[in-house]
Amino acid sequence: MKPIISNCINKIIYTVLFVLCLALTNHTQAQSTTKSTKISTINGKKYYMHKVASGQSVYGIAILYDVDASVVFAENPNAKKGIITGQELRIPYQEGTTVDNTKPAQQTKSTPVEEPKKQESVTPTTNSGNAQQPDLLSMMDEKPEKEYVYATFKSSRNINFHTTEVSGKRILDFRIQHRFGNISSGANNAWGVDGPASLMLSLEYSHDGRWMAGISRCNVNKMAEAFFKWKILRQVKHGWPFTVTYFGGLYYSAATNASLAQTTPDFYNPNSVGDRMSYVHELIIACKITPWLSVQVAPAYVHYNLVGTAIGFAKNDCYALLGVIRAKYNKRQAIIFEYGYRLNTNYATTGVPYYNSMGIGWEVETGGHVFQIFLTNSTGIMENQYIMGTTTSWTKIGATPSGIRLGFNINRSFALSKKSDL
After folding, report:
1. Which CATH superfamily is domain 34-94 in?
2. How far apart are CA 150 and CA 45, in angstroms?
3. CB 340 within 8 A of CB 358
4. Which of 205, 213, 172 minimizes the C-alpha distance to 415?
5. Cα(first)–Cα(last) distance of the chain, in Å?
């Protein structure tokens, strides 16, 4: 009799333990199959911020959010080493879906409690304010966020002209810009490779990806520059069609000329700091028309403190309209073009001809580098030089040969923080 009683007791104990295990399993499943209600926007992209529950795996989480596991690993590289309870993962938010945590995302057969009938459906067209509230919240969640257009141009410069682009967040750019001598100088001068050459070095920094400041030095007239760029408006997909950037530059010439008898532009009185200063302002308006075609225009205002025969300018204030085109023909390469049209041409002193600046070239992007090689008729590289002070033309004029020059720009970007956009 005792063995029979003992066997009955053991069966009861096993049954109780099985029911407890089943209940715990169902409770874990209910936790692990619940979507997160926390949605965050990071770098312009929306994510569910999922907190890992006990017993969850990356593959189970991927199934829960209806995405591939490779997507979860791509957004959370550290998850490849394993995940732990309480860890927060980024899951791409899918537009047009809402998060409902009033019940588990999946209903298993082992769930002992049946959903009450009154909660089975909610009529979205009811006049009841309480019944309408979940539908209104869903509409708010589904409201699309602005999707900005990026990389209208690959560099903050297009040959000579500034583009609407600024550097990424916490990025320092080092730039080398070089122009050889005139190609028309012939074979004995290696078609300009032997010089005389123009060279400019620049350092540019952006803290938040919207504004950028920089300093430059050019060997043409020993010119130094400090400039500021601010991206005022950004192009939005299916919305605002333009990116608008302000550019302002201040220029100082260290060239010496005690007598002021020379007629070369930008030679100033060494005893007057004000005579050595000039300024440029531009409002750059750009549009990325297609993934492969970008255009921009920029009205420009140039002011020279000193005018007269000594520098070749008869007017302090000059105006121009600058245009840029970038045509991308594969993932990393593009054809670039620029042209500056001078709106007033009567600013030169007698015997000093000036021409519109124009350039055409090839651009290639290789990770942290952007390389441009091109032809241009401008000797000066800074804005106060090439916009109104280009002294050579693309074509031969009378006895004056063309002034086409081969040049190149090299840009290298450095990330100064873990938060850098590089």
Report:
1. LysM domain (3.10.350.10)
2. 13
3. yes
4. 172
5. 80
pLDDT of residue 128: 42
CB 164 within 8 A of CB 173: no
How far apart CA 160 and CA 177 sit, in angstroms, is 9
Q: Check whether 109 has a pLDDT greater than 50.
A: no
Burial of 53 (0-12, 13-18, 19+ CB in 10 A): middle
Structure tokens at 135: 């539908």
Contacts of 162 (CB under 8 A, 6+ apart): 156, 229, 247, 282, 284, 298, 383
Phi and psi at 80, nearest 5°, equal -65, -25
Q: How many CB atoms lie within 10 A of CB 302?
A: 26
Buried b (16+ CB within 10 A) or exposed e, 374-400: bebbbbbbbbbbbbbbbbbbbeeeeee
- The size of the chain, in residues, is 422
The model's pTM? 0.65
Same topology, domains 34-94 and 157-415? Answer is no
Lookup: tokens for 83: 């995940």
CA gyration radius for the chain? 33
* Span 20-65, pLDDT tens digits: 555 444 444 444 457 888 888 888 888 888 888 877 888 788 888 8
- pLDDT value, residue 34: 75
H-type helices in 271-370, by residue range?
none
Q: Which residues of 91-108 are buried (b: 16+ CB within 10 A; e: fewer)?
A: bebeeeeebeeeebbeee
The answer to whether residue 116 scores a pLDDT higher than 60 is no
Q: Which of 21-25, 69-73, 186-190, 282-286 has the lowest mean pLDDT?
A: 21-25
Topology (CATH) of 157-415:
Porin (2.40.160)
For residue 296, pLDDT beyond 90: yes
Q: Which of 254, 302, 247 lies closest to 278 in space, CA to CA?
A: 302
Look at residue 165 and tell me whether its pLDDT is greater than 90: yes
What average pLDDT does range 154-167 have in this prediction? Answer: 95
Q: Which residues pair with 413 in a beta bridge?
A: 173
CA distance 142 to 372: 43
Give residue limits of the domains in the chain: 1-32, 34-94, 157-415
